[in-house]
């Protein structure tokens, strides 16, 4: 299998595995069969495995230079990834009636909305930050396709989920969707620690898994 065919196949499989189970009728059947927690764990695990395959496929594709990233483009990845890790840590498992990856809307407290208050779709924005920053830092065609594709998917997902939310929540949408202050609680400090550990873990793992040191040349 050539690198370009593998990359295209990987995107097709990722789109199907990510999009079909998230459709409301399919999700309802899967959560009824597996339970909400098991569904989210399985969904997230499959997504991460397929993401790893796509990254590896992009690395195996023929190298075609489009631009030479400037030093500032490479340095921009670190703050963007720090922000993405913070969004992930604040969003995982938190009640979110608008997006995937959070517990159901019944547990959502508008007085203490957490990160969902100012940002309805924190996981998709984290994905957009990851993809956009790495798109800047990689100027070859395969990685432009990889990260550009994920950036488009993340931004399109935000639009799609907002449309779905308006349809499903009906009259409750304007009240629930208004931007709010997070209303942090003391237990959210653990999420800040988790964000730091996630960021540190990615910095340590990147040279071993990807083969490049994000701190090199700073």
Characterize the structure shown.
The chain is mainly α and 218 residues long. The chain has two domains: 1-62; 65-218, no CATH class. 66% of the residues lie in helices and 0% in strands. The chain has nine helices and no strands. It has helices spanning 3-19, 24-34, 36-60, 71-75, 77-91, 122-137, 141-169, 173-176, 189-209. The radius of gyration is 18 Å and the shape is globular. 26% of the residues are buried. The mean pLDDT is 84.
Summarize the structure.
The protein folds into two domains: 1-62; 65-218, no CATH class.
Q: Describe the global form.
A: globular
Termini separation comes to 37 Å
Low-confidence stretches: none
- Rounded to an integer in angstroms, the radius of gyration calculated over CA atoms is 18 Å
Task: Spell the H/E element sequence.
Answer: HHHHHHHHH
Helix/strand structural class:
mainly alpha
- Secondary structure tally, helices: 9
The count of DSSP E runs of length 2 or more, i.e. the number of strands, is 0
Residues in helix, % = 55-70%
- What is the average per-residue confidence, as pLDDT, rounded to a whole number? 84
Measured by DSSP, the beta-strand proportion falls in: under 5%
| Largest sheet properties | none
Count of the separate structural domains: 2
């Amino acid at each position: 299998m050539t690198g370009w065919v593998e990359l295209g196949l990987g995107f097709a499989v990722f789109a199907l595995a990510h999009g079909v189970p998230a459709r409301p009728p399919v999700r309802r059947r899967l959560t009824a069969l597996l339970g909400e927690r098991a569904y989210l764990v399985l969904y997230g695990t499959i997504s991460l495995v397929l993401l790893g395959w796509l990254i590896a496929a992009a690395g195996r594709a023929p190298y075609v230079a489009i631009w030479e990233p400037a030093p500032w483009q490479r340095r921009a990845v670190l703050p963007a990834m720090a922000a993405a890790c913070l969004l992930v840590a604040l969003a995982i498992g938190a009640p979110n009636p608008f997006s995937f990856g959070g517990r159901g809307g019944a547990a959502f407290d508008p007085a203490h909305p957490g990160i969902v208050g100012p940002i309805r779709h924190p996981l998709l924005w984290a994905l957009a930050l990851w993809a956009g920053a790495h798109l800047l830092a990689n100027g070859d065609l395969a990685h432009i396709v990889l990260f550009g594709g994920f950036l488009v998917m993340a931004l399109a997902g935000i639009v799609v989920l907002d449309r779905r939310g308006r349809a499903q929540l009906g009259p409750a949408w304007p009240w629930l969707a208004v931007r709010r202050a997070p209303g942090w609680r003391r237990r959210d400090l653990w999420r800040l620690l988790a964000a730091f550990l996630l960021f540190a873990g990615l910095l340590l793992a990147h040279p071993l898994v990807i083969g490049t040191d994000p701190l090199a040349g700073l």
